[in-house]
């Protein structure tokens, strides 16, 4: 006999690296809101870059409010690093001509990957309203962009149903339309129950959706912010999560430890189910995401030069 109990074997199996199931990751950042924050955000990118992400995406504010900063950040990534940048592009608050100009500027700057979304309503609004001279939604935008250039296009999807969708079936059907229009990858809205994601993927596959559906992971750096984000996008916050972060508002050190534990366990459960591709919503906080990637078996490239 080996002398190792069943529980010990299970623990060793949980912690052991899985070379055959090596994960790939991508990271989302938002552009700095001021020049003073630009270098701080660049340091966050620099911290995660040695993990060799498949791509790094940069968000686009409602109504194009961060257009110039988004373009500046993805262009800098393209010019100064070996990372693959992806720029967010939305329908909100823009005419077709304006969107064409933005997309063309990206293409001429060497940006070949777009994350195409309908976009959130501008601040002060609660419901999406198409611009009179713009697009009604992401399917129209994807179709138009693919006619302009052969962009790689990632899109969003909602394991717990888009708040504006009439039904879960209608929501999945819309994802299928995005794939048929030219999308090559779907990235989910954040969620906390791995089974929610796995069931969603099963339904999508049954509906003929064949593109990768990458789980979007949002480590809980601030519980109050997560509650706000969840309310906006329809994500369920389980009672056990609320209990874990209880009384930690003024204790950031403990909160970060708990956040790393929760996100790591979520990702490990997905990894054990066969998931090998993860997209992290970093909120420009690198250390927490780095620790989760470490538990998944990722290690920095020792030959990587700082950006």
Question: How does this structure look, described?
Answer:
- It is a single chain.
- The chain has 307 residues and is an alpha/beta fold.
- 45% of the residues lie in helices and 13% in strands.
- It has a 9-stranded parallel sheet, with helices on one face.
- Strand 4, helix 5 and strand 5 form a beta-alpha-beta unit.
- Helix 2 runs parallel beside helix 11.
- The termini are far apart.
What brief labels describe this structure?
307 residues, alpha/beta, TIM Barrel, 9-stranded parallel sheet, 11 helices, globular, disordered N terminus
CATH fold type: TIM Barrel
Instruction: State which percent range the strand residues make up.
Output: 5-15%
Which CATH first-tier class would you pick? Answer: Alpha Beta
Terminal CA distance = 51 Å
User: Unreliable runs, pLDDT <50, ≥5 residues?
Assistant: 1-20
Looking at the overall shape, the CATH architecture is Alpha-Beta Barrel
- Number-wise, the strands total 9
Helix content: 40-55%
Order of helices and strands: HEHEHEHEHEHEHEEHHHEH
Tell me the domain tally. 1
Q: Major sheet: size, sense and barrel closure?
A: 9 strands, parallel
Residue-averaged pLDDT: 86
Helical/strand content category: alpha/beta
Report the radius of gyration as a whole number of Å.
20 Å
Give a summary of the structure in a few sentences.
The protein is of the alpha/beta class. It has a 9-stranded parallel beta sheet with strand order 7-6-5-4-3-2-1-9-8, with helices on one face.
């Amino acid at each position: 006999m080996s002398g190792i109990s069943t529980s010990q074997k299970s623990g060793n199996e949980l912690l052991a690296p899985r070379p055959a199931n090596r994960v790939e990751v991508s990271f989302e950042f938002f552009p700095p809101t001021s020049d003073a924050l630009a270098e701080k955000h660049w340091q966050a990118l620099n911290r995660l870059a040695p993990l060799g992400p498949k791509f790094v995406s940069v968000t686009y504010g409602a109504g194009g409010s961060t257009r110039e900063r988004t373009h500046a950040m993805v262009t800098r990534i393209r010019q100064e690093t070996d990372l693959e940048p992806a720029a967010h592009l939305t329908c909100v608050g823009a005419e077709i001509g304006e969107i064409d100009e933005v997309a063309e500027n990206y293409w001429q700057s060497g940006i070949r990957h777009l994350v195409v979304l309908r976009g959130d309503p501008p601040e002060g609004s609660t419901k999406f309203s198409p611009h009179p001279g713009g697009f009604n939604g992401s399917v129209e935008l994807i179709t138009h962009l693919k006619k302009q250039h052969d962009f790689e296009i990632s899109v969003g999807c909602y394991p717990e149903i888009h708040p504006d969708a009439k039904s879960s079936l209608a929501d999945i059907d819309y994802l299928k339309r995005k794939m048929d229009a030219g999308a090559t990858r779907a990235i989910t809205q954040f969620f906390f129950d791995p089974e929610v994601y796995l069931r969603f993927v099963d339904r999508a596959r049954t509906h003929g959706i064949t593109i990768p559906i990458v789980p979007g992971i949002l480590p809980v750096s601030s519980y109050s912010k997560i509650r706000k984000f969840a309310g906006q996008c329809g994500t369920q916050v389980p009672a056990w999560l609320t209990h874990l972060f209880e009384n930690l508002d003024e204790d950031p050190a403990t909160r970060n430890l708990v956040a790393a534990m929760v996100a790591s366990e979520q990702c490990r459960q997905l990894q054990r189910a066969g998931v090998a591709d993860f997209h992290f919503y970093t909120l420009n906080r690198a250390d927490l995401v780095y620790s989760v990637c470490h538990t998944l078996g990722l290690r920095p490239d020792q030959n990587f030069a700082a950006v």
